[in-house]
Amino acid sequence: MAWTKYQLxxxxxxxxxxxxxTLSAKWADMFSAKxxxxxxxxxxxxxxxxxVGMFLGELSCLAVFYILLSHxxxxxxxxxxxxxxxxxxxxxxxxxxxxxxxxxxYVALNMTSASSFQMLRGSVIIFTGLLSVAFLRRRLMASQxxxxxVTILGLVVVGLADFxxxxxxxxxxxxxxxxxxxxxxxxxxxxxxQMVLEEKFVYKHDVHPLRAVGTEGFFGFVVLTLLLIPMxxxxxxxxxxxxxxxxxxxxxxxxxxxxxxLILLALLGNTVSIAFFNFAGISVTKEISATTRMVLDSLRxxxxxxxxxxLGWEAFHGLxxxxxxxxxxxxxxxxGLHRPLLARIPCCAALAGEDxxxxxxxxxxxxxxxxxxxxx
Length: 376
Hints:
Blueprint: H1 5-29, E1 32-33, E2 42-43, H2 47-73, H3 92-109, H4 114-120, H5 124-135, H6 142-166, H7 174-202, H8 209-231, H9 250-259, H10 262-287, H11 290-310, H12 318-334, H13 339-343, H14 349-354, H15 358-365
Antiparallel strand pairs: 1-2
Helix pairs in contact: 1-10, 1-11, 2-3, 2-8, 2-10, 3-7, 3-8, 4-11, 5-7, 6-7, 6-12, 10-11, 11-12
């Protein structure tokens, strides 16, 4: 079936904004500017300030939800389902997971390449699958277990590629690259806890996806903004990446933005893109399918990688190609993307349906939204 112009627009919007989300965050990390005391220029290393901007983007989804709801109620026959009433505090635990994971990932993005950052985020399916079995009593299909094993292999290959490139990379130290990769994987464990919490306590309340994203964004924005105050006084040595060597120096971030306004453009790109990415992702799931959303999310990794190579942000490494392909296969197996292909082959049609029905596949890939980027 041919896509409509609106569906093509949504697919393009999701792919574009999802790619901009990671690329703009990495672009901000690559700037150097003077800080508050007009000393020597130093790198813009403010992951927690970036995370606040990301949550501001998520929070804007709440405004979009109420705008759409208000517009729908003016119709003679409203079509939008606002969902059930719920206690907003239900979103506090997953929002705290989101806040922690996003902050860790922005720290890691300072240490490694944008493409490796995006590829390693695929490890979330390993921990989500295992936690779903342990806490949601879910039975994973054979293809999902195989997908997890293939994904582990892909992570090993990507990690090996980073190890090899780390010895030749002038932009990142080998120790920083390895630490960054490990932090990304650690963050995916927290993201998987977030997803399990959302499914166990949130989704059964039939909350509209935009409202869910916006509510989590509200909690993340408020809590992390308040945490910037104690972070200003917590010494962490050279790990801080700012002149005062504290956990986060928000004042230094604003001073650097004042000296180099292009940093603000990169941060706004991150904030705006995460809002549009969540909207586009939800709309793609609704208007086309969750399968299409997962394919577009995989293509996003390819776009980020291609742009990073074109801009000279990183060098080409053959092992990374192999790692990406293996991760792609692992993701496809876990999310059941192989079934439509098998169903078209007469001798394999039975295999396509033996692992579960289409509704289960859509549930695994859909759930209305994906974890945020900092999309998440």
